[in-house]
């Protein structure tokens, strides 16, 4: 733990108590098109919470965790990406750091049609899986394949739009796909009893999911701004756990085509399944347990050849979190 804390102090610098002096523009790259789990960000912007803390946060849409990690590595100040993708990107040379976790449990799940003859994920061998190119599941597929005793190239990936996943399965354009669990209600509604499903957690891989990440140079030079964004984001997520409707309404007001009744379902699954973590309740909302980060990195190391090796302490820090902001104990019960 001491090693972890020392590394965290080095990442964010020594001026941790200084207030934010003026408005600083912060580009925050989302991992995909806006959905229920992004609602707290829109609410915090609508309410002026980021501006009051000295940050002019501008949301930008990327196409997958791999894409958002690359965007932050290329210079965007902050973003959202699953931690596995962050580790892969850092190993390829991107100077990025996770500063707050959002999905304490892996949201990843595999979907297929039972009528296709597929009984389990092992039956994907020789089949076509549909996903966008920058999707986190495609980035991390070699890790789950390894655990299942499959070659990573045992499947053929087909590029499809996320919104087309149910239709692509039903039409048998693809044999399987992946989706975050907070979209599970869509798959159940569209496919019904013929839906086959296996979460990555049930297959023995519960990597940290979506996390707030920062460009390392920005983190060094503007640590106070990064801290302000992190703490407002913590506050927004906790507020939306307690009162989700205004948060989803804020997102719907900012983004055309949002259906609030659908995104409330997305949000409720997010809270019930993906925030359910003792560290969120007892340490701080967004807290990353060092042992889990090390275990996640071990999975990445055994699956990918990292061009630039690094230690777990270099890719994730809890130093910016407000430890008084915790998930209410009853939120996921």
UniProtKB/TrEMBL annotation:
User: What range(s) does the SsuA/THI5-like domain occupy?
Assistant: 37-245
Coiled-coil annotated residue ranges, if any: none
Cell inner membrane among the record's keywords? no
Record flagged with keyword Signal: yes
| Signal peptide interval | 1-22
Matching entries from Pfam families are given as:
NMT1
Arranged from A to Z, the UniProt key words for this protein are: Signal
* Gene3D superfamilies tied to this protein: Periplasmic binding protein-like II
Q: Biological process GO terms, please?
A: thiamine biosynthetic process
**Which protein, by its recorded name, is this?**
ABC transporter substrate-binding protein
In its UniProt entry, the species of origin is given as: Falsiroseomonas algicola
């Amino acid at each position: 733990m001491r090693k972890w804390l020392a590394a965290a102090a080095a990442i964010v610098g020594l001026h941790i108590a200084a207030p934010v002096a003026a408005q600083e523009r912060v580009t925050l790259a989302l991992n995909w098109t806006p959905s229920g789990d992004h609602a707290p960000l829109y609410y915090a912007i609508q309410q002026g919470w980021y501006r009051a803390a000295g940050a002019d946060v501008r949301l930008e849409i990327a196409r997958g965790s791999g894409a958002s990690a690359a965007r932050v590595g290329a210079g965007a100040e902050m973003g959202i990406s699953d931690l596995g993708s962050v580790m892969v990107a850092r190993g390829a040379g991107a100077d990025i750091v996770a500063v707050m976790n959002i999905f304490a449990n892996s949201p990843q799940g595999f979907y297929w049609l039972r009528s296709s003859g597929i009984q389990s994920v092992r039956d994907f061998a020789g089949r076509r899986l549909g996903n966008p190119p920058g999707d986190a599941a495609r980035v991390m597929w070699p890790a789950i394949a390894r655990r299942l005793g499959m070659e990573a190239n045992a499947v053929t990936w087909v590029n499809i739009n996320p919104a087309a996943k149910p239709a692509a399965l039903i039409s048998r354009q693809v044999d399987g796909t992946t989706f975050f669990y907070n979209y599970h209600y869509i798959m159940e509604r569209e496919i019904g009893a013929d839906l086959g499903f296996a979460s990555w957690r049930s297959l023995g891989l519960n990597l940290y999911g979506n996390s707030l990440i920062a460009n390392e140079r920005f983190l060094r030079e503007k640590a106070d701004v990064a801290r302000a964004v992190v703490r407002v984001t913590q506050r927004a997520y906790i507020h939306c756990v307690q009162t989700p409707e205004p948060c989803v309404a804020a997102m719907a007001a900012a983004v055309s085509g949002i259906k609030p009744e659908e995104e409330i379902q997305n949000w409720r699954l997010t809270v019930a399944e993906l925030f359910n973590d003792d560290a969120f309740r007892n340490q701080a909302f967004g807290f990353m347990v060092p042992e889990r980060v090390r275990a996640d990195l071990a999975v990445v190391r055994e699956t990918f050849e990292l061009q630039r090796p690094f230690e777990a302490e270099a890719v994730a820090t809890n130093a910016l979190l407000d430890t008084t902001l915790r998930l209410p104990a009853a939120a996921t019960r």
